[in-house]
Amino acid sequence: MAKKASCSAPCLALCPLKAITIDDSISIDSSKCISCNLCTISCPHGVFNAKIPSDGGLCESILAARKNGKEVIRFACDRCGGRYGKVRRKRMMGEEAIVLPCLGSLPETLPFYAMRLECEVVIDPCAEDCGLSEGRKCYELAMKRWNNIRESFVMRPIDASEETSRERNVGLERRDFLLSGGEEIMKLMFDLEEPRGGERASSVYRRSLPPRRRELLILTQGLEPRSRNVTSEDYPILDLQVSREPCNLCEVCSKLCPSGALRYSEGGDMGSIAFTGGKCTGCRLCIEACPKGCISSSDADLGALNSGEKILVERQIYRCRSCDFRFVRDGSSAAQNLCPLCEKKRNLVA
Fold first, then answer.
1. How do the domains of the chain map onto residue ranges?
2. pLDDT tens digit string along 127-159?
3. Cα torsion for 231, 233, 236, 241, to the nearest 10°?
């Protein structure tokens, strides 16, 4: 793992049985792992993915419950036997309990998906007698992320017409129409089908993007945003700025960005670095790696998660007449159209 110092490795601190080790790579001791899935919520960069139960499988359960007429989705904890959900379910019709290995592993995408299917969402409290202290810490983190996301958008039901053709849905009742849209959204979230058409095959579907962030971008598309600035401790995202003069468009930041949030492009004699805030996971690798130290960060507006790409810096570029290397004009090399290295070689010879 390059640039280890850029990550505080919360997964190590929050793994209850210390089954995770980080050396040159990340490994999990299967003999110690209890499948609590806390590592999936503790890591902001999407290194760990839940397999049992998978996010896709849980979304299928939510959709199936909605199809069966359930209007309340309750997220319960298996570590306490899912007792809150089971007791409540006995007393109340129209409710479905989604039981997780630990409530601390609840991603914000699951309750968000349920709310977009017009379900009431109930999340059980963390049990007072729970012996998993790490689970309680992750529960607090999960609730903070969920509340931040929920307050950043004006919620409305999934519009099936956004994902399916109107001809195919003629005559459907409103509830069926809503659920058909829910199925299409889920297919996009979990790659159950290949994206259709040029618009679907957009940069949102980069494989380097953490799966849950990609799912969240899909779920929030088309929703009215509410401006809500958050720190990277409250949600793993940053807003970036680049100082124009020191930046020489070396591309280090765009090449190292693990989630594809930074992109270098050229058009004519201009080069630019663009930033897509919704893809940023707040790792700060670009800030640490920038050789000129010209990248800074600030709190991000979570409501602008789907605001698209913005240009951070744009400069005129030239090709060295000696080696054809691309460079930004600077000092005496500008007059001779020589890159700094070729200019230095010429001065040494002279």
1. 4-42, 46-226, 231-317, 320-350
2. 777 778 888 899 999 999 999 999 999 998 886
3. 40
Dist. CA 350–CA 345, nearest whole Å? 9
Task: Work out the average pLDDT over 98-117.
Answer: 93
Grouping H, G, I as helix, E, B as strand and the rest as coil, residue 165 is coil
The CATH number given to 4-42 is 3.30.70.20
- Regarding predicted confidence, which is higher, 202 or 43? 43
Question: What tokens does 39 get?
Answer: 């590592």
Q: What is the residue-wise DSSP string for 105-145?
A: G--THHHHHHHHTT-EEEEPPPPTT---HHHHHHHHHHHHH
Cis peptide before 53 (omega within 30 of 0): yes
Pair 259, 279: CB distance under 8 Å: yes
Amino acid at 137: K
Percent of the chain with pLDDT over 90: 42
- Residue 81's pLDDT band (cuts 50, 70, 90): low
Which pLDDT belongs to residue 168? 44
Q: Give yes or no for residue 324 having a pLDDT over 50.
A: yes
CA dihedral 27, 30, 33, 35 (to 10 degrees): 100
User: What's the confidence (pLDDT) of residue 191?
Assistant: 65
Judge whether 273 and 254 are in contact, CB under 8 Å: yes
The two tokens of residue 287 are: 């800030």
Sign of CA dihedral 117, 122, 126, 132: negative
φ, ψ at 191 (rounded to 5°) = 55, 40
Give the Cβ contact number of residue 228 at 10 Å.
19
Does the domain at 231-317 match CATH 3.30.70.3270? Answer given as yes
Query: Quick one: tokens of 14?
Result: 């929050």
d(Cα 135, Cα 306) in Å, to the nearest integer? 31
**Alpha carbons 234 and 214: distance in angstroms, whole number:** 19
User: How far is residue 277's CA from residue 289's CA, in Å, rounded to a whole number?
Assistant: 19
Which of 73-82, 83-92, 287-296 ranks highest by mean pLDDT? 287-296
Q: Tokens representing 129?
A: 């007698």
